[in-house]
Amino acid sequence: MSATYETRDGVAVVTLNNPPVNGLSYDTRRAIADGIERANADPAVKAIVLTGAGKAFSGGADIKEFGSPKAIAEPNLLSLIKLCEDSAKPTVAAVHSVTMGGGLELALGCHYRVAAPGANVALPEVKIGLIPGAGGTQRLPRVLGVETALNMIVSGEPVKSELLAGLPGQKLFDKLVEGDLVGGAVAFAKEIADKRPLPLVRNLKVSHPNPDAYFQFARNTVKAMAKNFPAPPKCVDAVQTALTMKFDDGMRAEREIFMALMLTPECKALRHAFFGERAASKIPDVPEDTPVRKITKVAVIGAGTMGGGISMNFLNAGIPVTILETKQEALDRGLATIRKNYEGQVKKGKLKADKYEQRMALLKPTLNVDDIADADLVIEAVFEEMGVKEQVFKKLDAVVKKGAILASNTSTLDVDKIAAFTKRPQDVVGMHFFSPANVMKLLEVVRGAKTAKDVLATVMDVAKKIRKTAVVSGVCDGFIGNRMIEQYSRQAGYLLDEGCTPQQVDKAIEKFGFAMGPFRMGDLAGNDIGWAIRKRRAVERPDFRYSKTADLLCEMGRFGQKTGAGWYDYKPGKRDAIRSELVEKMIEDYRKEAGIAPRKVSDDEIVQRLVYSLVNEAARILEEGIASKASDIDMVYLTGYGFPLWRGGPMCYADSQGLFNVAQAMKRFAKNPRDDAKFWQPAPLLAKLVADGKTFT
Ligand code: NAI
User: Fold this and answer.
1) Is pTM beyond 0.70 here?
2) Among the options 6, 65, 85, 125, which is catalytic?
3) Ligand 1, CB within 6 Å, residue ranges
């Protein structure tokens, strides 16, 4: 039953019941429509209350139906809203908890609205590249005024019901009900049951004292903020029609804008990311009802760069952390960094002082391994050396209670080998955080050959609690993200060999939308990290080819920002990348020595080679089953590597370019003698998709 019907004291109560958030699915819409018709047919009923069961009034469209014929089957949302408006008996929406998107638009179609305090009220469509499509842009300005309504629509952010109810002149809520919402709504419905005419939001006047100046201002502000996103400026256009057009014409204008946005690549990319985020937490062979282990106490081993940031995630979520080090100085240093980070947040007004103290009170520093014996989850973040990991995991195996999850934050080592240091490999998993670990959204969950399903389910659940986007990766060198970035870095190096400067490469890819180009990124992360990896590669894979310029840079001691010089120069204490003549000369000398005549490389070629190198490696990762779906790879790149959100990630972007064209470009690159012909053979999966006329996503 997706909506229930009952009568209370002469008032019909129609309760949406489609967990988790009462999405307006076809069945739910039907059930609401039936309820309204039934109430109108019953002479004993004088008014109708519409409310939601459980955790929401309604979160809007049912995402399970998105894009399917059911989503628009009659009664569609517009028809349902009309039914509420046209009802001969008054309709009263009783909203609470979550009242968003189509849910709010439905409430705006009712004659009256009452609200519980604390409800999150929003029109979040802009976040998936759309504008509200069922009257939101026309009705919200009529009840909240143009400015408040536009702020809500253009940001998509929720506003608390009590705040909205307190705005002077607002007509969104007729009453705020403390305590029993449905009881209060029924009482309110009885009070207004005989009042006629029935009020309609569509009939309210909307005005602004200085509309032209205001909309000009709004347009400029939005343009500056939403450079690559087409929806926000369209929100301004749509809200303006509420002022300049009759209601029905405004509705038509809203519809037209909505439909046009739906077809834009940016909207497709944003929807892909929205669904990709939800899909990432689902693991094909781990059923959703897999029981999870209870995680109430966490231990972190190592208080270095990563250990501190990892700990903060749990402290922020109210989960106690014991942090273990080998030496007092290292422990003190780690704690001081955590304090400094929190104090920075307090100074900026992002964290209240008492919250800061509460968080620090949850942190227990120790040098004694016995103090972590009762942890439910242990995350190891010690030096990246197999010998050190071996010591640590053997110790954990001996000390930590049975049933605890033992996780490693290793970024390059084999999780199966680490698991084999214990007698409980089923409890071992990789939790690969990204630096700074308290900031970056991405968490790669590395599934070992023996990792138990309930361990995976638990870690995915924990990731949600600490607000990370968790993506499962199989065991391989570099996992998903770093394995791909290695190919991208190699291409960046070849581009230098062939005639580019670091700035040219960075600029081209930053113009494409990456937060940072490969060379600025190297300077930030430390060029010595890649150097160490390449030295290892030289031993493991003697055929591993790359531009030697990166090694020459490190031989000059230019490790990046931390040494004040890398691919760029840096002024003390500043992060601005300044062109380095020394580096350019090093590159030129290298070319001369290698007998390479430099050529002019176009920005298009730079972007294609960098992005398609990600795509080709990703196709191999998919085929090997290291990632279980293309959208997981996109989520890794969107949340961990600064790939432009409006392009939806490398796989979504490749699809948008046409995989045929992508494969053609790869074949062209394979002919470049300075490049790696073997790498550029389109991955078998890509070749197959091209042959079948299919896409990654
Ligand atoms: P770090 O050198 O900053 O910190 C390591 C800490 O572990 C040091 O404070 C050290 O005293 C401590 N330690 C060493 N042996 C220990 C033991 N037996 N018991 C307790 N503490 C011990 O290293 P960082 O950068 O934090 O890296 C830690 C791990 O995280 C490595 O496996 C690394 O590959 C991985 N990682 C690092 C990233 C980064 O950007 N730095 C990103 C993702 C993963």
Assistant:
1) yes
2) 125
3) 301-307, 324-326, 330, 381-384, 388, 391-392, 409-411, 432-435
